[in-house]
Design brief:
Elements: H1 9-23, H2 34-53, H3 58-65, H4 73-79, E1 82-87, E2 99-106, E3 109-116, H5 122-128, H6 135-151, E4 155-161, H7 168-172, H8 175-186, E5 193-202, H9 203-207, E6 214-218, E7 222-224, H10 228-235, H11 242-249, H12 253-259, E8 264-266, H13 277-296, H14 300-313
Amino acid sequence: MKHLLDFEKPYIDLQQKLEDLREHPKEAESNVDIGDEIRLLEEKIEAKKRELYSNLTAWQRVQLARHPQRPYSLDYINNTFSNFSELHGDRLFHDDHAIVAGFAMLGDHRVMVVGTQKGRDTKENIKRNFGCAHPEGYRKALRIMGMANRFGLPIVCLIDTAGAYPGVAAEERHIAKAIAINLREMALFNVPMISVVIGEGGSGGALGIGVSDRTLILENSYYSVISPEGCAAILWKDRAAAPQAAEALKITANDLLELGLVDEVVPEPLGGAHNDHTLMTSNLRDVLIRNLEELEQIDPEIRLKERYAKYRKYGEYIEG
């Protein structure tokens, strides 16, 4: 059953009417051409959708980024990539299931893919910790990315997390240090690196696998130092101000592209990635292959310098 968001209601009644007409055509008036009526309804729904999804607020895009039927990392790994062979464990403490990683093929390119993984139901969400990694998850990611660097394999990171796990256990095992080490080491890897925000890109939990030569973001994803609810709780003392915070934070794909914080926005199917997994995974494959082939043409030494310069620019601003 499709999960509907509040702002999608304007075209839901039309969609229901269309489905009823298709299922019970004989109940329609005898003097009406059913085929023509169906076509008119389809055109009206399409126009309504285009109008709605081309004028989304920042908060509405956050809701789409969190949509429970949106493709997750393993959906892309199994469809955008091929021949995935998963690797496990940080060799120190535990295998964190919030991070998935391993060897894969991207078209004709051998790569290492790393991603944060959420669950589809309660049982899997408990296993995956709702996509919020512990320190051992970031250590696992670093171990596997280090292996890719030694073998000369490009690295692709898929980001979809509200943030690193903020609990006592994570603090006891040094979550801040684990993420900081990842930032340092990822900045120095010689191989081409691409990161893609496929849903939520929350705080250091996202950045812990986000340092790269190219940062891509799906059209209805967000990338932020804090969640809108967290920002609202701090600045407005009320989590209900999350929509206002989302606008102020400039966390949507187009805002981030304009600010120079991402390199490319990947278009989604009309209505969001959850409406057509096949098209979305295919679109992402094409974009990843193009970016990877461009990066492979750049001398590694120059690529490292450009990566460094890219992150040094973050935070620059001009007072108007």
